[in-house]
Structures are given as structure tokens and as C-alpha cells.
């Protein structure tokens, strides 16, 4: 009998890449367990980006989903109102929908994720890449 080993607060690195392999952005996110799903990775990534933006209010939002009422910048988005907060639920909804509509691909250790509830094992060395195919607009 094999035992399942779960880790708490596992940190993995997420990269945004072009189809040609150029890295546009890189962030670290927390995953609750080494056994996770593609959905949980997307949700954790979007939540981390939105929380970081809402706490710091930088000039440019570097996230997977373009917030509504924002303008595109080089590899990011500038919100029209600097003090505007981004809605994480809307961003997550848009990101999950875009994944299902092939708006972006997710590669986990160079293997393409097929569906949201696909289970994957991750560790500190896991490489997760997001490759956007179309601009994603959220809330």
C-alpha cells in the first residue's frame, strides 16, 4: 500500500510565455497540496495576481486576464482609475472560461493540460507555463 504525501503551502513558479517560448512574466504562487488540478492552479494564479494588485495598486497590472476598464500596456494593463480594485471572482471566471475556449494553454512540465479537473502532481521544481492565444478580458 502506498501512502499519499501531501504538502501544505507548496510554492511553484508560473511563467507567461509567447508561442515562441519568450518569457513575458514570472510569478510564484502557493498551492495547498502536491496533488492538485489545473483549475486550482489557474484559480491560485489569478487570485495571487489580483490580491497583489489590490494591495499594492501599482501603475500596471500584470495578470492573465485583462481587467475591464483598462488599457493594454507592454505585457500588462493600466487601469483607467488607479484606485480601482479588481474583482477576483470575475477574473477567475473569465480565466476558467478562456481555458475551456482555448484562449490559452497551460503546460505543466512541458505537458499540455487537457481539462480543468485534470489532476496533476506538482513540487518545487514543477514548471507551469501559460501561453495566451487571445487577450482575455475580465472584471
Explain the overall architecture.
The protein is α+β, with helices and mostly antiparallel strands and 139 residues long. The chain has one domain: Ubiquitin-like (UB roll), CATH 3.10.20. Helices cover 23% and strands 32% of the residues. It is built from two helices and nine strands. The protein has helices at residues 38-56, 88-100, and strands at residues 10-17, 23-31, 35-37, 70-73, 76-79, 104-108, 111-112, 119-121, 127-132. The strands form three sheets. A five-stranded mixed beta sheet has the order 2-1-9-6-7, covered by helices on one side. A two-stranded antiparallel ribbon has the order 3-8. Strands 4-5 form a two-stranded antiparallel ribbon. It is globular and about 40 Å long. The chain starts with 9 loop residues before the first strand and ends in a 7-residue tail after the last strand. The model is unreliable at 1-7 (pLDDT under 50).
Amino acid at each position: 500500500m502506498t501512502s499519499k504525501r501531501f504538502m501544505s503551502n507548496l510554492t511553484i513558479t508560473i511563467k507567461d510565455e509567447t508561442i515562441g517560448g519568450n518569457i513575458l512574466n514570472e510569478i510564484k504562487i502557493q498551492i495547498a497540496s502536491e496533488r492538485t488540478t489545473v483549475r486550482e492552479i489557474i484559480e491560485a494564479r489569478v487570485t495571487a495576481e489580483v490580491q497583489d494588485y489590490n494591495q499594492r495598486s501599482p501603475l500596471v497590472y500584470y495578470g492573465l486576464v485583462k481587467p475591464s476598464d483598462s488599457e493594454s500596456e507592454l505585457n500588462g494593463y493600466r487601469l483607467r482609475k488607479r484606485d480601482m480594485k479588481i474583482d477576483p471572482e470575475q477574473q477567475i471566471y473569465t480565466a476558467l472560461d478562456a481555458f475551456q475556449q482555448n484562449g490559452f494553454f497551460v503546460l505543466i512540465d512541458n505537458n499540455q493540460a487537457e481539462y480543468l479537473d485534470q489532476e496533476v502532481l506538482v513540487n518545487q521544481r514543477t514548471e507551469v507555463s501559460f501561453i495566451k492565444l487571445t487577450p482575455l478580458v475580465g472584471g
